[in-house]
């Protein structure tokens, strides 16, 4: 497809389980972002990549959260030992380069039970 | 400590009338502002933006106004259409770090346009 693709769309995890969320940005987009959106809140910045370089990870809430983009294209957000407060929609976005319009994917809905 | 505030959670307007969505910010470093629209089960889509060197930006039915001294911006939709019914997010960033590098979002306003 032409847009940002995220998988899985929906994930139910038991507390303590590890999860991995995948993002396929728009082809050729250099910049990639992860945001977390809790229920009733706006998206909150987690981390940002320029190609394979993670330039800002100041929004990652704890060391249980890890993101990578090893080849400068697909990115994975990994959450270890999930907790109930991790329940949220995880939005991936990409842009042609820094400063251009950001295009969001549909999000991965994570529910931790 | 919310740096971008959308104090009204919802707004209902009649089709054909004007919708005015408000947003306030507290961080003086913000100098670039955006509005995103979000339908259920979809990601946010970019609507319109404005930098602090301007006080107004217009794109079709959508106009954003910026009042820097009041740290306030508003989105006007004229005329409103039923298809505009969605959640609208105000977002802000600093051009120093790249206009779209790290956005700070408000909580959103749910707009309902009645036919």
Secondary-structure blueprint of this entry?
The complex is a heterodimer of chains A (113) and B (115).
Chain A: E1 5-7, E2 10-13, E3 19-24, E4 31-37, E5 44-50, E6 53-56, E7 65-68, E8 75-79, E9 88-95, E10 103-104, E11 108-112
Parallel strand pairs in A: 2-11
Antiparallel strand pairs in A: 1-3, 3-8, 4-5, 4-9, 5-6, 7-8, 9-10, 9-11
Chain B: E1 4-5, E2 10-14, E3 19-25, E4 32-38, E5 45-51, E6 56-59, E7 62-67, E8 72-77, E9 86-93, E10 104-105, E11 109-114
Parallel strand pairs in B: 2-11
Antiparallel strand pairs in B: 1-3, 3-8, 4-5, 4-9, 6-7, 7-8, 9-10, 9-11
Structural overview:
The complex is a heterodimer of chains A (113) and B (115). Chain A is 0% helix and 49% strand. With 113 residues, chain A is an all-beta fold. In chain A, strands 2, 4, 5, 6, 9, 10 and 11 form a seven-stranded mixed sheet that branches. The model of chain A has no long low-confidence stretch (mean pLDDT 94). Chain B is an all-beta fold and 115 residues long. Chain B starts with a strand and ends with a strand. In chain B, the strands form two sheets. In chain B, strands 2, 4, 5, 9, 10 and 11 form a six-stranded mixed sheet that branches. Chain B has no helices and eleven strands. In chain B, strand 6 and strand 7 form a beta hairpin. Chain B is globular. The chains are: A mainly beta (113), B mainly beta (115).
Based on the model shown, name its key terms.
heterodimer, A: 113 residues, mainly beta, four-stranded antiparallel sheet, 11 strands, globular, B: 115 residues, five-stranded antiparallel sheet
Provide a short characterization of the protein structure.
The complex is a heterodimer of chains A (113) and B (115). By secondary structure, chain A is mainly β.
By secondary-structure content and strand pairing, the structural class of chain B works out as: mainly beta
State the separation between the terminal residues of chain B, measured CA to CA: 38 Å
% residues in beta strands of chain B: over 45%
In terms of DSSP E residues, the strand content of chain A is over 45%
* Secondary-structure element series of chain A: EEEEEEEEEEE
Helix proportion of chain A: under 10%
- Number of helices, where a helix is a run of at least 4 consecutive DSSP H or I residues of chain A: 0
Number of extended strands of chain B: 11
What's the alpha carbon Rg of chain B, rounded to whole Å? 13 Å
What class would the helix/strand composition of chain A place it in? mainly beta
Order of helices and strands of chain B: EEEEEEEEEEE
The chain-level mean pLDDT of chain A equals 94
Which range best describes the helical content of chain B: under 10%, 10-25%, 25-40%, 40-55%, 55-70% or over 70%? under 10%
Task: Compute the separation of the termini of chain A in Å.
Answer: 32 Å
* Inertia-based shape of chain A: globular
Task: Based on Cα principal axes, name the global outline of chain B.
Answer: globular
Mean pLDDT of chain B: 94
Taking all Cα atoms into account, the compactness measure Rg of chain A is 13 Å
Q: Which regions of chain B have little confidence, pLDDT < 50, spanning 5+ residues?
A: none
Largest sheet entry of chain A: 7 strands, mixed
């Amino acid at each position: 497809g032409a847009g940002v693709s995220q998988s899985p769309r929906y994930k139910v995890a038991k507390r303590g389980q590890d999860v991995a969320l995948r993002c396929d940005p728009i082809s050729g987009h250099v910049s990639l972002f992860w945001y977390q959106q809790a229920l009733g809140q706006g998206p909150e910045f987690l981390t940002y990549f320029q190609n394979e370089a993670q330039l800002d990870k100041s929004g990652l809430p704890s060391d249980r959260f890890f993101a990578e983009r090893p080849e400068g294209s697909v990115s994975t957000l990994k959450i270890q030992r999930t907790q109930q407060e991790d329940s949220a929609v995880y939005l991936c976005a990409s842009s042609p380069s820094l400063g251009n319009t950001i295009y969001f994917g549909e999000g991965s809905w994570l529910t931790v039970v | 400590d919310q740096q971008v505030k959308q104090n009204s959670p919802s707004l209902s307007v009649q089709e054909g009338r004007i919708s005015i969505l408000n947003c306030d910010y507290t961080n003086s470093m913000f100098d670039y502002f955006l509005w995103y629209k979000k339908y259920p089960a979809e990601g946010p889509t970019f609507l319109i933006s404005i930098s602090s060197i301007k006080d107004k930006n217009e794109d079709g039915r959508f106009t954003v106004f910026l009042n820097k001294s009041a740290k306030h911006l508003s989105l006007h939709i004229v005329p409103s259409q039923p298809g505009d019914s969605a959640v609208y997010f105000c977002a802000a960033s600093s051009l120093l770090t790249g206009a779209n590098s790290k956005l700070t979002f408000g909580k959103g306003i749910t707009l309902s346009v009645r036919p």
